[in-house]
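Re: export button greyed out
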Amino acid sequence: MAIDIAHEKYPGSIYAVEIGAAKAEGGSRESVIKVGGETTLPFLFNEGAIPNPPVVGLEVFDCEPLEWPEGLTREFGDCLKDPIRWAKRCVGEFGAKLLCVRLMSVHPDWGGRSSNDAVGFLKALLGEIKTPLIVLGCGDAQKDNEVLAKASQVVRGERCLFGIATQGNYKTLAASCLADGHSIIAESPIDVNIAKQVNILISDMGFSPNRIVMHPTTGSLGYGMEYVFSIMERARLAALAGDKMLSMPFILFTGQEVWRVKEAKESATLGLEWEIATATAMLHAGANILIMRHPKAAMEVSKFIDVLMKKE
Amino acid sequence: MEKFKILFKPDNVEVEADRGEVLLSTAIKAGIYINSSCGGDGVCGRCKVIIDKGKFRTEPTGRITQDERKKGYALACLTTIEGDLTVRVPAGSRLDIKKIKEEDAKLLRLKGIYSQAEDTPEAAEEISLKEVFAHSPLATKIYLELPPPTLDDKVSDLERLYREIRKAKDVPIMQTGLTNIKRLGALLRQSDWKVTVLLGKRNETTEIVSIEPGDTSTKNYGVAFDIGTTTVAGQLVNLNTKEALGTKVTHNRQVVFGDDVITRIVYATEEDGLEKLHHAVIDNINEIIRELITAHKVNLSDVNGIMCAGNTTMVHLLLRVDPKFIRMEPYVPTANFVPTIRASEAGIKINPRGLLACVPGVSTYVGGDVTAGIVASGLDEAEDLTVLIDIGTNGEIVLGSREWLICAAASAGPAFEGSGVSCGMRATNGAIQRVSIADPQTVKLETIGGAPPRGICGSGYIDALAELFLHKILDRDGRISRSIKSSRIRSSEAGLEFVLAFKDETAIDADIVIQEQDIENLKRSKASIYSAASTLLRKLNLDFKDVKRFYIAGGFGTYLDIEKAVTIGLLPDLDRSVFKFIGNSSLVGSREILLSYDAFLKAEEIAKKMTYMELSVEPGYMDEYIQALFFPHTDMSRFASIRGA
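Workaround output, generated via the alternate export path:
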């Protein structure tokens, strides 16, 4: 007698979020990326649908990155000094389908370039690169409110993903994104309840939930990754159980987390493997977008996603 | 050491001070009570004074604006004395120890427990105390005409007295102090064998407290107290007739040493700290007694008994018992059940031989005030599941029925008592207690006593938050909107603020505002109370929906809008008829226990049978708390009836 295997049925689903707008939609992107939309836990094809695979994006700055370890910088060579060239290599040579631009140069500790200069760079990049874009500020709340508002206007209609909104500072960014047709990253400090609160606050401003992506704040392998995993899992289970205000896809800045740990700084090989290991673990926690730094790590993880997405 | 003269205005009190002395300490020494939520750490910025004349040194602080500094403003806790000074204490910095007016007090007395819905005597009747406790007060007087001894009836004077007392009253165990025995022989003969004995209840033993010549039996009074972390209330009671004569409420003077019990316990470990805390509360008590007896023409020597209900730390400080073990693992107090002592031993000035009893407490953080509240509300006899929450600095939650009782303490902070918030004040004359907002520019206020506003009390804050939230001036996180155009919304050094009353409408020569920081404090208070109740219920596999009655106690004056309290998520979203605002149930219970030994035994029984749950070690509590840090709540399905939720 055949054994009937019990399958979990979830009432909820994750919102599908699109990044990038093609010409027909008023943008200039040659491709559009769709994430989310699943009705089950990661890679459990028997229990629900996973219409969109997780996606890996590479990160570029608008200036030469400070404090990147040598193991990482040597992969890029001197193109790091020329961010446009750096971005082109990411797409052309390393096959990135998604680019995450961090406007670091406006940060007071990074030279404090004027926001107009940073936005000028973004405009130039938009003409050179045809992949969908994620645009981040420098991490200084005041500077970001200024630069991101301008950046949002410059890439109006391109349906970029903008970040980062927090519980304490979300209104300015949300208002810009709403006006210019972008999506937004909502950040919380590894806490399901606060994640939900930020999503509600942003929704209350008129954002439709399929334009919000959650950043749960993560850590690297060996630095509290298990805790992050269980928090993400808890949020995902709540979403699948029907909690709409937790049903947004996850974005994780894996590269940023990994390349600041001691092991990655000590050895290039270890760093590469560390980033791959962290990223693959996070895929199983429910990550929809992984922003990575080492091109080889990004390519490896992309291949791994292809394997995982084969249903057999 | 060089001495200087410090003159405090507008009180015109002058005291001497040493060079280098901190101005805040000098003020306390002078009997001038200045706000100081942080206990003098320079953090809260509430002890602003204006130095008109003289040499001083003051540390720079962000709490004083440039403009204020030019006008001579300084924080008293950061200022040291370098010469003779003239110091003005502005109204806003003054700890309001003025009393509630007698009319207000009457209201409190008549409706010690009253319904919030209809503030009428009928509504008060509904849940007012049933006459369940026999009249047997802490102190009783009996007038006796003793048969003089004869050759046939030669029992001793003392046995004669005992014999006659027992004829009048059933008192199996009696004792008398040597002081009384020494006087007895002469006293009985001088008063022609006609005396009044004052009997005191010391647990199972009845003590002959004193013997007075002639018939003084009609003069027998007591005072019931509720000693809260932030507020002290006392009620004068005729122990013979059970009539409550009047109530006085004041700020706990210990507030200058810190806002919450933990800060006070820490302060008690400092040099003279325990002594100062003890004296502060004793001063409160003596002052209240003095004012009550003056108002009601009662002699101090006829006040024979005091009953105190307070949280465990307050009772320790009252009795000058070191509270330090309360905050050391495994968190054990010195005593929950304190034997009755002579009030004079604690420094309380009544009849020198009068008694002081304390309502039995449950645990480290749940004291006699809660037991008294249960006695008053009758929760221990409820047929159905009932919740009692006491919204105070040390917020307590009791859950149960006639079959079982469980309680927890939520460290809510003093925000709802009007402390630790920029324009907060107690529920006294001039406190804003009702707020309605028509649009972001139009605000309607109602103050206690109809006086020009001086500050905002707990119910005013609840109203204001709910109204600001419903008009979308606040987001769910409690931040004020920048995009709404109104002259009432403006920036300050502490972030955005909303002006409830402009300077020219107030009695304090300053705007009355709600700052984002205040909202944050209030949000934490409401979250800790709601989450304590929800955690307690969840622990027992119950839900708010199972609660059939919900009593809310607290010093909110005469008014609490249940709808608004639900809107901000302080109370759960239940059918509003479930809720009853019962005012200061701790004071009512304390009075009842003062009047009846049966009620005292009931309190003892309640304290023994109640289970205490320590929230800080409860795994789900933090999660519940973070969820409640939102307006009204992160889980919006729990507040389905709230517009915008």
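The CA atoms of residues 137 and 598 of chain B lie 9 Å apart. The button fix ships in the next patch.
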